Amino acid sequence: MIYLWIILAVLIIWFIALYNGFIRLRTRTGEAWADIEVQLKRRYDLIPNLVSTVSGYAKHEKSVFEKVTEARAKSISADSSGNIKDLAQAENMLTGALKSLFAVSEAYPDLKANVNFLELQRELSDTENKIQAARRFYNGNVRDLNIKVETFPSNMVARMFNFAKKEFFDIPDAGPESQPVAVKF
Prior knowledge:
Elements: H1 2-57, H2 62-81, H3 84-105, H4 109-113, H5 115-150, H6 154-160
Helix pairs in contact: 1-2, 1-5, 2-3
């Protein structure tokens, strides 16, 4: 009879440990997503300042500024919708628009020497690095949660308490920057 109680106690402890593991992973995934949102907000706040600085030098490059502004608005909208795939696509568009903005800045030597522009460019670059780090942290937590949701026997506990798989935050490589660089001598 004592063995039955011991087995029951071990099963209860195991069950509690699995459940708490799911709670821990779900919380860490939420924290990681919040980190991404903080960095995206920082990025969205920097972009108008950058556009304003560049537009003072390159007034006739109106279409580039419109694309950046439009891409920023779509990213903010996708971020607030909570759909990870839409946000990834919008972020890809915004990255491309920012690249074209920096390409425009190359044609203006005075702009490239402007302290405000250089500081904004440095801040944006730093923010991009933080977004990548936050994305890796989030995706690592999502991977761990998804593995636990799908593997036996934890999948039984996941089903009982409605723990579901999460989507990775992947930015698709659709532009020319995803192609390998051709090196010719």
